[in-house]
């Protein structure tokens, strides 16, 4: 008996209704009970999303006759066939009005979808090829990582279900730019307009591709597609096997300070084609789309991707050494502000991502640490430690290369213990204390210790709002400034306490959601006013009266100001670097010491 053939049609010809009309045609389906199962999550976004909530009007015909459909679970339907081989046609509709890189969006301007929103797994045919035909409004084109069938513009083929779900589609009148590296076509599909310089973007993407290719020694795909959404939303991305979707604000491309974030996003998502899409623990592919999959290694998958994203921007000469070190300093500052760094380890942060990082609450900074942020910093420290121990012969990139050669290139996941073993093999020594302290433990990262290998150290200072920008003195000072220990935000014109840090003086007195009104009886209406009243008019140890509305009732509490954490962190060279320190700096950052 031949294997069934599986063919989806995605009809988006009535985009104003935000509904895809889906048809799944199955030929040669053998006799028996059958299931249609829609994923509850999509890889890269570790959150149960229950895409089936948008699905409606499901009908099944077997050999042209309507049959009874059994709703077996929230995301699963069943039907029976009685002939030895049957033709089955499944029709259903999916509402699509969630913009976002993980999302599913159909409107008058385009169709964008991730396969997990639309494509059923038929029985357990995971390794069977799936075909997709797109029916689009006149004048629309399709960009996706999937291969075309016979070069037809609207027909695509995935070798298996995992690749089908790993290939988002952008369909519309988007701009399509291209460049080639190693004779491989790279398409850039841009939906939306803003203050981007498309030619600059193309140049920078090519530089990123080349720098990362050089790090791994080749490009493991036939073609690559960047899907770029410019809208009024924030920054985010999702990685795929030979494509990525990145979303940015329309106006994220100027000034340079904002564009640096765009470059880091693009570099991060591209680096993922190796790290996590090919180099990954066993749990991260092939996937179970029906439930959470647990790994302790997301710090290596996401944090190290962040680390190499910025480092390869440096290697591509898109970031200067100063820009690179400023990103590192900002990360150190952010990490040292989070009380959660003493509570949650990186391994736990990874394992619990489904219920913590992807479901944050007001108290998250006190109890959790991001595996992106700390993972990036651990990557920095581990790279420097490896370079130091191997006398500058190997760095963390060698760990990734070996994992790629042994597992990623063969499309197999590794057991979790392999990560530390490979680090120890490259470093030719034990890294047990390093892993115990910084990965499974919550010991604070001693940045000075690791940066000293490269002749660098950390300077922690404090900004004062009364600094005179025209004066020549330093923009910050060594003396801490007073603080309340809360992070406030302006919400619809109201000053609201967002986070109350457990190591701050107001932790047990102010609550998230309190609407701050006055300090010592004087009204504060903006973040700046609040900061000025605390920092300019008071000293550490002073007690101030904070007035606020809590659930609509006027309240007031005294708070004794303590010292704020540093908010002006810089990486600076040590005074008299040794030749070893300079050599390590130069190989690590691919830049002369004096640059
Ligand atoms: Zn990522």
Biggest beta sheet attributes: 10 strands, mixed
Counted beta strands = 31
Based on the coordinates given, report the CATH architecture of the largest domain: Sandwich
The CATH class of the largest domain is Mainly Beta
Structural class: alpha+beta
Mean pLDDT: 96
Helix content: 25-40%
What is the general shape?
Answer: globular
At CATH level 3, the topology of the largest domain is Immunoglobulin-like
What's the gyration radius in Å?
A: 27 Å
Total helices: the number is: 14
> How much of the residues is beta strand, in percent?
25-35%
* Count of spatially separate domains: 4
Contiguous uncertain segments of 5+ residues: none
Bound ligands, named by name, code or SMILES = zinc ion
First-last Cα distance: 68 Å
Question: What report would you give on this structure?
Answer:
This protein is an alpha+beta fold and 595 residues long. The chain has 4 domains: 5-172, Sandwich (Immunoglobulin-like), CATH 2.60.40.3650; 175-271, Neutral Protease, domain 2; 282-448, Neutral Protease, domain 2 (Orthogonal Bundle), CATH 1.10.390; 481-563, PDZ domain (Pdz3 Domain, Roll). The chain contains 14 helices and 31 strands. The strands form 7 sheets. Strands 1, 2, 3, 4, 5, 6, 10, 11, 13 and 14 form a 10-stranded mixed β-sheet that branches. The longest helix has 19 residues, at 198-216. It is globular, with a radius of gyration of 27 Å. The mean pLDDT is 96. The site of zinc ion (ZN) has 5 residues, from helix 4.
């Amino acid at each position: 008996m031949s294997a069934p053939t599986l063919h989806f049609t995605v009809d988006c010809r009535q985009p104003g209704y935000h509904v895809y009309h889906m048809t799944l045609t199955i030929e040669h389906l053998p006799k028996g009970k059958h299931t249609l199962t829609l994923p509850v999550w999509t890889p890269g976004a570790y959150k149960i999303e229950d895409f089936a909530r948008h699905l409606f009007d499901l009908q099944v015909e077997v050999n042209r006759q309507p049959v009874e459909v059994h709703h077996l679970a929230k995301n699963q339907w069943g039907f029976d066939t009685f002939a030895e081989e049957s033709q089955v046609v499944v029709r259903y509709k999916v509402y699509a009005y969630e913009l976002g890189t993980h999302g599913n969006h159909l409107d008058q301007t385009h169709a964008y979808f991730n396969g997990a929103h639309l494509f059923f797994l038929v029985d357990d045919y995971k390794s069977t090829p799936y075909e997709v035909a797109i029916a689009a409004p006149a004048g629309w084109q399709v960009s996706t990582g999937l291969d075309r069938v016979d070069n037809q513009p609207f027909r695509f083929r995935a070798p298996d279900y995992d690749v089908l779900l790993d290939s988002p589609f952008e369909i519309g009148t988007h701009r399509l730019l291209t460049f080639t590296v190693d004779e491989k076509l790279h398409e850039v599909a841009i939906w939306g307009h803003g203050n981007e310089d498309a030619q600059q973007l193309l140049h920078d993407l090519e530089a990123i591709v080349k720098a990362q290719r050089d790090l791994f020694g080749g490009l493991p795909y036939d073609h690559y597609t960047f899907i770029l959404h410019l809208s009024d939303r924030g920054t985010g991305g999702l990685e795929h096997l030979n494509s990525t979707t990145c979303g940015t604000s329309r106006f994220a491309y100027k000034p340079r300070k904002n564009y640096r974030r765009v470059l880091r996003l693009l570099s991060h998502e591209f680096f993922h084609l190796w790290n996590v899409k090919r180099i990954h623990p066993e749990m991260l592919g092939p996937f179970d789309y029906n439930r959470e999959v647990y790994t302790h290694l997301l710090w290596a998958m996401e944090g190290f991707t962040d680390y190499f994203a910025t480092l390869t921007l440096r290697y591509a000469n898109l970031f200067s050494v100063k820009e690179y070190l400023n990103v590192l300093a900002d990360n150190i500052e952010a990490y040292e502000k989070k009380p959660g760094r003493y509570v949650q380890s990186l391994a736990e942060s990874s394992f619990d991502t489904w219920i913590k990082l992807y479901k944050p609450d007001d108290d998250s900074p006190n109890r959790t640490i991001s595996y992106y942020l700390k993972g990036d910093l651990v990557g920095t420290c581990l790279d420097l430690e490896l370079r130091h121990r191997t006398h500058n012969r190997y760095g963390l990139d060698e760990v990734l290369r070996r994992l790629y050669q042994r597992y990623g290139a063969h499309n197999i996941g590794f057991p979790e213990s392999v990560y530390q073993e490979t680090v120890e093999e490259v470093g030719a020594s034990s890294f047990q204390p390093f892993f115990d302290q910084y990965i499974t433990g919550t010991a604070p990262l001693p940045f000075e210790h690791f940066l000293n290998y490269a002749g660098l150290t950390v300077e922690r200072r404090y900004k004062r709002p009364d600094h005179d920008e025209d004066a020549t003195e330093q923009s910050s000072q060594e003396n801490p400034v007073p603080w309340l220990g809360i992070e406030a935000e302006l919400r619809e014109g109201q000053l609201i306490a967002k986070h109350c840090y457990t190591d701050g003086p107001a932790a047990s007195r102010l609550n998230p959601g309190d609407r701050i009104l006055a300090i010592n009886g004087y009204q504060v209406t903006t973040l700046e006013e609040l900061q000025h009243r605390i920092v300019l008019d008071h000293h550490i140890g002073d007690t101030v009266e904070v007035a606020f509305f809590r659930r609509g009732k006027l309240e007031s509490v005294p708070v004794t100001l303590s010292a704020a954490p540093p908010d002006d962190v810089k990486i600076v060279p040590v005074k008299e670097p040794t030749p070893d320190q300079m050599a390590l700096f130069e190989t690590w950052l691919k830049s002369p010491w004096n640059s």
